[in-house]
Design brief:
mainly alpha; Fumarase C, Chain B, domain 1; Fumarase C, Chain A, domain 2; two-stranded antiparallel sheet; two-stranded antiparallel ribbon; elongated
């Protein structure tokens, strides 16, 4: 099996699924264990028993298919907004990968139908709420499985509308399938909602961390900040990896800076923390995100089913479905991301104050023009919203299944919040992006560091200098697109 990395997430998942299409021997061997177990006069949880608090109720052989069908239908009680198509696709891919590891015992027919779905961009529609992150993401994964039975819906090609599953299956010449013993349980036990949100956001965050360093360096240049706090010797004696990496990135970006040379001996003693402590703050977020990446990578390469099917014939009930490892790091990632926005907004504010030769509010004529005053309001609002969103979901628990499931992770709630925090951070950094570009314009004809100059020119190819008030919302949207575009930092040697 392919070991999935966040840094090459989609490529690795595609390779894993392609490998499974060529050789699904692990799935077949696991299924054989289940079929042999069914010949025995023993109780196997969820295979020939009820679920949750009903685990002690045996189910007769002629009702096993109905048991699995009922499981999917009864657990499809999700609510709220729909998970975006891209994340639903990731959920499906992660589920296929997990089943392919070979400890779930799913039938080949059910497994191959899921593979057919991904091959033909048939992405099930899944409501975002309903999981407590304990026995796996039961409700969301049930909705993801509904189209196997002819229920539920698929996304259209653009991901803008939904189509009833039965219509799509008919179009593809497919009949709903009969779930075999253990199939339903294999489908809905797992942490794929939490994992997909975590992987989706963290994959984007690894890029955003570099962008944050670039924007911090741009603002430092625009505000004629000092290079001294980025001296390698400072960070060598507090050797956190992230801190050292950020300091090195800023030193690199400020290389050959004419602006820096113009005020090198100006006598200023210290800059505000939002400039001076960029390595410490950005670096702490980097180190935190790296920890979160390691945990999520472990999770998406794990089996989170229950019961687990082993090649020696044992079928063992355990707790691998519990979302606690993810719940903690999803909260942690949100906090680490929020801090990038918090310090970014402070730098944006500094650039509006009119210090060090910059015009107040970054426009020559104010009064009739509000200048860059109001975008900072938006940044401040989003930073404050993140303070609410970053309250950890993982400190909560509530019993379910009549007390059988008496401690839950709430990781699903942390997952949904994480995406909202990420989107807010993007907006805040986007505002710093076009604010810093505006401020740098007033430093001409002096040039910033070579790396910053390259990025500034790229920004100016898409967003023009502002001489008067206009519809800033368009620029925020454009700046968000630039943030996510690899071209912004492609030619910069940032770590």
């Amino acid at each position: 099996m392919v070991d999935i990395s966040i840094r090459s997430l989609y490529k690795d998942l595609e390779k894993s699924i392609n490998d499974l299409k060529k050789d699904a021997g692990t799935v077949q061997r696991s299924r054989k264990v289940v079929e042999e177990a069914l010949k025995k006069d023993e109780a196997f949880y969820g295979i020939n028993t009820g679920f949750g608090i009903l685990a002690n109720k045996r189910i007769s052989g002629d009702q096993l298919k109905q048991l699995q069908r009922n499981l999917i239908l009864s657990h499809s009680v999700g609510t709220g907004d729909l998970i975006p198509k891209e994340i639903s696709r990731l959920m499906l891919m992660l589920k296929i990968h997990a089943l392919g590891i070979g400890y779930s015992g799913i039938s080949m027919e059910t497994f191959e139908r899921f593979v057919y779905f991904i091959d033909h961009d048939l992405i099930p529609v899944v409501p975002e709420k309903g999981s407590v992150g304990a026995s796996g993401d039961l409700a969301p994964l049930s909705h993801m499985s509904l189209p196997l039975l002819g229920f539920g819906s698929f996304w259209n090609e653009e991901g803008t509308d939904t189509i009833p599953a039965d219509e799509v299956l008919k179009k593809h010449g497919l009949e709903p399938i009969d779930l075999q013993a253990k199939d339903g349980l294999s489908l809905i036990n797992g942490t794929q909602l939490m994992s997909s949100y975590g992987a989706y956001v963290l994959e984007k965050t690894l890029h955003l961390l570099k962008v944050a360093d670039l924007l911090g360096a741009m603002s430092l240049e625009a505000l004629q900040g000092s290079i001294k706090p980025f001296d390698k010797r400072i960070h060598k004696i507090r050797p956190h990896n992230g801190q050292q990496t950020v300091a090195a990135n800023v030193r690199y970006l400020l290389g050959k800076s004419e602006i820096l040379e113009s005020h090198r001996n100006c006598g200023k003693v210290q800059d505000p923390y939002s400039l001076r402590c960029i390595p410490q703050v950005h670096g702490a977020s980097r180190d935190s995100i790296e920890h979160c990446v390691r945990v999520v990578e472990t999770e998406i390469n794990s089996v989170t089913d229950n019961p687990l099917v082993f090649q020696d014939g044992d079928i063992i009930s355990g707790g691998n479905f519990h979302g606690q490892p993810l719940a903690l790091v999803l909260d942690f990632a949100a906090i680490a991301l929020a801090e990038l926005a918090s310090i970014s907004e402070r730098r944006t504010y500094l650039m509006l104050e009119g210090h060090d030769g910059l015009p107040e509010l970054l426009m020559e004529e104010t009064g009739i023009n509000s200048g860059f005053m109001i975008p900072q309001y938006t940044a401040a609002a989003l930073v404050s919203e993140n303070k609410v969103l970053c309250h950890p979901a993982s400190v909560d628990s509530i019993p379910t299944s009549l007390g059988q499931e008496d401690h839950v992770s709430m990781g699903s709630i942390g997952a949904l919040k994480l995406l909202n925090v990420y989107k807010n951070v993007e907006q805040v950094l986007a505002i710093e992006l076009f604010t810093a570009a505006q401020a740098l314009d007033f430093r001409k004809p002096l040039k910033p560091g070579a790396g910053i100059e390259k990025a500034h020119q790229y920004i100016r190819e898409h967003i023009a200098h502002a001489d008067e008030d206009h519809f800033f919302k368009d620029e925020i949207n454009q700046a968000v697109e630039l943030l996510s575009d690899p071209s912004l930092i492609r030619d910069l040697d940032l770590k």
